[in-house]
Specification:
mainly alpha, 78% helix, 0% strand
Length: 258
């Protein structure tokens, strides 16, 4: 194991221990996705009767949307943890330890990925218990969860970057509030592409949230479209690498400023 991997594992373990002291956090973070799943699933269940929707039931269509939206909404607050550690002087203490600098900031991204994996699994199981069907089987569900993790990596790394640059909670709150709903509703989270206005389809084509949704749904269908999974998933993976690298560069700039 390389030094950076070992140090990232060490720092991630520290965050897992902190989470173990507050297990209610994971339960509370699941309340909103459960509301989306069952409230929207009941409210819009007849939408599938519209010509062109192309899904056997709205719950089947909705589960991937809730999984990805949950990953998005949770990961966007990652920068608040980084900002808190900066304000409390914890981050400065890390800088004097014999740790690889990238591991300090990457640990929060890994932690967010682990949390997202657990949340996504729970949502998939709840959807199945409510009557959702997953024709793609276990491979399709694994692709959906992997897509949710990639979205979490993208936006947790982005949130960390904003936190280190802005150094203000209000900035993170404002950006999250501004981005969450547009990113969600300018995608196919709740509505099929065929029923969206033309301009929304164009925007959705460049929306990474929609890339995750299309990759997940393509893998979960009765006849998985693996070419689409590779294209959309590959694009999402490249974006995750780029944003994570940006967060590391930003952290190095922060290190030089203290």
């Amino acid at each position: 194991m390389t030094a950076i991997a070992a140090h990232t594992s060490l720092m991630t373990g520290r965050q897992l221990k902190a989470l173990a002291r507050q297990p209610a956090y994971l339960v509370i973070s699941l309340i909103q996705p459960v509301i989306w799943l069952f409230l929207f699933g009941s409210l819009f269940r007849k939408v599938v009767e519209l010509p062109g929707f192309g899904a056997p039931s709205y719950l089947d269509y909705l589960v991937p949307g809730v999984v990805i939206m949950s990953a998005l909404s949770t990961s966007m607050w990652s920068g608040m943890t980084v900002l808190e550690e900066i304000d409390r002087g914890i981050m400065d203490r890390f800088l004097v330890l014999p740790l690889h600098r990238s591991a300090i900031i990457n640990a929060s991204v890994v932690m967010q990925s682990l949390t997202t994996t657990v949340q996504s699994l729970i949502i998939v199981v709840l959807g199945w218990a409510a009557g959702a069907h997953y024709p793609g089987g276990v491979p399709g569900m694994l692709v959906l969860i992997a897509a949710s993790v990639l979205i979490a990596v993208v936006f947790s790394a982005l949130s960390n970057t904003v936190g280190m640059l802005a150094r203000q909670r209000e900035t993170i709150i404002g950006i999250n509030t501004f981005l969450l709903l547009p990113l969600t509703f300018l995608s196919t989270a709740f509505m099929a592409t065929a029923l969206m206005p033309h301009w929304m389809r164009i925007v959705a084509a460049g929306n990474p949230v929609n890339w995750a949704l299309e990759a997940g749904r393509a893998a979960m269908s009765a006849s998985p479209d693996w070419a689409r999974v590779l294209i959309q998933g590959g694009g999402l993976a490249l974006l995750a690498i780029a944003v994570t690298a940006l967060s590391v560069l930003t952290f190095r700039a922060y290190q030089k400023s203290v």
